[in-house]
C-alpha cells in the first residue's frame, strides 16, 4: 500500500493534468465558437 500522502499527491497531479488538458482544449475550441457566434450574428 502506498503512503496516504503519496496517494493525495498523485490525485492532485492527476487533477492538474486533467485541468491543464481541458484548459488547452477549451483555448483551442473557444476561438472557433467565437467565430461561429460572430458569423451567426
Question: Any overview of this molecule?
Answer:
The chain has 41 residues and is mostly helical. The chain has one domain (1-41). It has one helix at residues 4-40. The chain is rod-shaped and about 55 Å long.
Could you estimate the helical fraction of the residues in percent?
over 70%
How many β strands by DSSP?
0
SSE order: H
- Tell me the major beta sheet: none
Overall number of domains: 1
Give the overall silhouette.
rod-shaped
Report the span from N to C terminus: 58 Å
Helix tally?
A: 1
In terms of per-residue confidence, which ranges show pLDDT below 50 for 5 or more consecutive residues?
none
* Strand proportion: under 5%
Counting helices, strands and paired strands, the structural category is mainly alpha
Structural Rg: 18 Å
Mean pLDDT: 88
Topology, element by element:
Elements: H1 4-40
Any key phrases for this structure?
41 residues, 90% helix, mainly alpha, rod-shaped
Please summarize what this structure is.
With 41 residues, the chain is mainly α.
